[in-house]
Design a protein that fits this description.
This protein is an alpha/beta fold. It is 46% helix and 15% strand. It folds into 2 domains: 219 residues, Rossmann fold; 91 residues, UDP-galactose 4-epimerase, domain 1 (Alpha-Beta Complex). Helix 2 packs across helix 9, helix 4 runs parallel beside helix 6 and helix 8 runs parallel beside helix 10. Bound molecules: 2-amino-3-ketobutyric acid (AKB). The site of 2-amino-3-ketobutyric acid has 13 residues, from loops.
């Protein structure tokens, strides 16, 4: 009896929060990348097909168009995103548009424009329209002066990439907007995300996906990082679940607005060994390039105990699970 009335009470509060709708309406920016497509799919399963608007500046595939609403939106054009937000009565903004670490270093002015100016526009819209706002951050928000093993939520952050600098900027500005204007800002620092059906867009951790494609195509892989370079990583389904979980957590349960999340840490050599369980003849070699310096400045092991304690973050997939899932998907293709 008591339980039933508690559930009714929570449902009432939730509906009031979303203007008497039972589900939030969500806008995802930069949605055609590695995270946006699977995230939109999961959110549509949870809240309904019409509740999620996926946006980007790229031409979507037919398959993507069939999955639900897709709109052109350039985050550098505030009015355009504003129109989309107003016309679709958006409650949650999920801002994924960004240039990643390796490509950011190759075009710093563009990275500054997209990652910093784009974030300013989104923050301003979240403030104006009282949207719950999610912006992903990264292990790249730390630098060579941060403790690397383990790296806690709160420590010195002096990243040496424009990507990292722009993400610290987003973390700090988001938290400032939260304290100053009450914006319901939420941010997770992600490790390298491994996915089978969507590709990453120019990060330092991309090797951990390329290696599987080369293992199947040629049986060997020349890695741009040294074999002993340890970095935190996560399987895509855990990443998507972490976004859903933090977005669904009641605001007063969050004791901080930016959290580390991680699932595992491995080196290219350790990943190659795990691959050899499936492909015994697989060989790895290494020819480090400019990405080595970036990786050497990043956390090796991420301390995410606050996320685990505050909102029950609990990743499901470890290194063996990840390798098994990658091969299961790629061999089917
Ligand atoms: C990158 O390598 O740039 C990203 C990240 C760790 O944020 N995958």
């Amino acid at each position: 009896m008591l339980f039933k009335s508690l559930v009714r009470h929570c449902a009432t509060i939730y509906q009031r929060r979303f203007n008497h709708r039972s589900h939030p309406r969500i806008l995802i920016t930069g949605g055609c990348g590695q995270l946006g497509v699977p995230l939109a799919k999961r959110l549509r399963e949870l809240y309904g097909r019409e509740s999620v608007v996926l946006s980007d500046i790229v031409r979507p595939s037919d398959e993507l168009l069939e999955q639900g609403i897709y709109r052109y939106a350039d985050v550098l054009d505030l009015k355009q995103v504003q129109e989309l937000l107003v016309n679709n009565q958006i409650d949650w903004l999920i801002h994924l548009s960004a240039l990643l670490s390796a490509v950011g270093e190759r075009d710093v002015p563009l990275a500054m424009k997209l990652n910093i100016e784009g974030t300013h526009n989104i923050l301003e819209l979240a403030r104006k329209y009282k949207c719950r706002l999610f912006i992903p951050s990264t292990i790249g928000a730390f630098g060579p002066d941060s403790p690397r093993n383990p790296t806690p939520d709160f420590c010195i952050q002096r990243p040496r990439t424009i990507y990292g600098v722009s993400k610290v900027h987003a973390e700090l500005l988001g938290e400032y907007f939260h304290h100053r204007y009450g914006v319901d800002f939420r941010c997770l620092r992600f490790p390298g995300i491994i996915s089978a059906d969507t590709k990453p867009g120019g990060g330092t951790t991309d090797y951990a996906i390329e290696i599987f494609h080369e293992a199947l195509k040629t049986g060997s892989y020349k890695c741009y990082l040294r074999g002993d370079t340890r970095l935190p990583m996560m399987w895509i389904d855990d990443c998507i679940q972490s976004i859903v979980s933090i977005m669904e957590t009641p605001s007063n349960q969050l004791k901080q607005r930016t959290y580390n999340v991680s699932a595992m840490s491995f080196t290219p050599d350790e990943l190659a060994k795990a691959i050899q369980k499936y492909k015994p003849k697989f060989r790895i070699s290494s020819e480090p390039d400019d990405r080595q310096k970036i990786a050497d400045s990043w956390p090796e092991v991420f301390d995410d105990h606050n996320a685990r304690e505050h909102w029950n973050w609990n990743p499901k997939v470890d290194l063996d699970g990840l390798v098994q899932r990658m091969f299961a998907y790629l061999e089917k293709q």
